[in-house]
Predict the 3D structure of the following.
Amino acid sequence: MSPPPPARRLRLGLRLGLPRRMFSQVLLMQVAIAAGVAVLATGLFLAPLGNQLDDQAMRRALAIAQTTAVEPQIAEDVVNTPPTADGPVQREAERIREATRAEYIVVMDWRGVRWSHPTPDEVGRTVSTDPGQALAGHEVMEIDDGTLGRTARGKVPLRDSDGDIVGAVSVGIAYDSVRARLIHAIPELLAYAGGALAVGALAAWLISRRVHRQTRDLAFSDISALLAEREAMLHGIREGVVALDRAGRIRLLNDEAHRLLGIGEEAVGRSLDEALGEGRTTDVLAGRVTGTDLLTVRGQRVLIANRMPTDDGGAVATLRDRTELEQLGRELDSTRGLIDALRAQDHEHANRMHTLLGLLELEMYDDAVEFVGEVVGDHRATAEQITEKIKDPLLAALLVGKATVAAERGVALLLSDRTRLPDRLIDPRGIVTIVGNLVDNALDAVGGTAHARVEVELRAEGRTVVLGVRDTGPGIPAGQRELIFTEGWSTKEAPAHRERGIGLTLVRRLAERQGGTAGVDEAHGGGAEFTVVLPDALTEPGAEPALTGPIAHRTAEEESR
């Protein structure tokens, strides 16, 4: 049976007369617990206290009896004198009784005849209780009824100088005094219990106030509903959520976070360094790298992370899967590169066709064949040079297209001799964006200058990619080398259809989100040289990059064939 909805539970609580506010409920529960504990502790203390007082009274009676029995004169008088109300045994026993405040001290012979008694008329009569154990040589402690009422008793044998038993000594302490001590202790004990209850109630009130502030006076049913909604929301969203406590330990992971980070429930309660190991992902989630929309790599996944601190000193980090956007991003970049290349080729093709038509009309057939061969060979040589040094197909296609655009604008686009880039890029789209923006800016900078040239360098250093773009333009003044990366800053007039001052800002942001840097300096021989360093931009050797988009589809089709 499913639990009743929160509203129904609230109405049920009000109908039963229970307080709705959590503050009142917690306070009542804690006061009830404190009162119950005080009553239970008092009862548990009183129960053994009565037994303890009984035992103390019997031991006191036994000690008086032992002290009386060791008097050698008493044993000698029992043997040599008759039992009389004013005899030596009676006088000595009464003296000891008055000194010890005992209820009675009875000295008897081996037949059980009394030689002393607080009531003189009882001297010479037989005792009312069986003295057999004491006359047999045993010491006895008991609570029993006699001629003087209920008493705590101690009995010991009476021996002569030779050690023979000639009688016994029985000492009694009034039981009413024992009970009076117990009753006298109860008010004091209740006072202590009341004080403890008051302290407990005060502590309960303080704790309830703290709970009231922390829960914002929500009812228990409201908190239960919020927890249920939180669970449904956390496990239903398509973003990974990682909650951390103030010590940096993981205290919550939703299903998407498990998938994106590749860890299980065993990570809960462990620190990020233990659960994820060292790396940029750990640094981003732990807050050692600050910023918004930080790019990080976990396995074959490219993630976008954001971290928000919480009031208790912890933090909540959200993760978005960037790899799911790779297909659209690659298709868009490929389409834009193709459009630029086709546009440039359209102009170049028209010029070449006009030249070829003129050669044919002049019947210069050999020259026409040579011209066609040179055109095809130049284009093929440029493509082969780029693909030989840059193995990533998307980046190579971009540079081939840019080379065509540069040729149309009269600019030589070259690859440096140090260029070597394997096909292990984690985020090709990001690097395509960086290279495309830098090359476009370089082409704009050298446009209209003599011997215009742009040189591109892409090389791998371990898992780090170092990217450089050098041009022969006017360069960047030293005072403006940081300003050019500011959003909206540009030396060119903005066209009507778009804004300027965004490309270089995007380059730096992409580099910093991957933990890298972007800067500009003066090139050797004049011009500007942009350098971008991207750490952890390559997968480990032997690892297959996660392909998406047209390249992935084409690979899958080739494998199926």
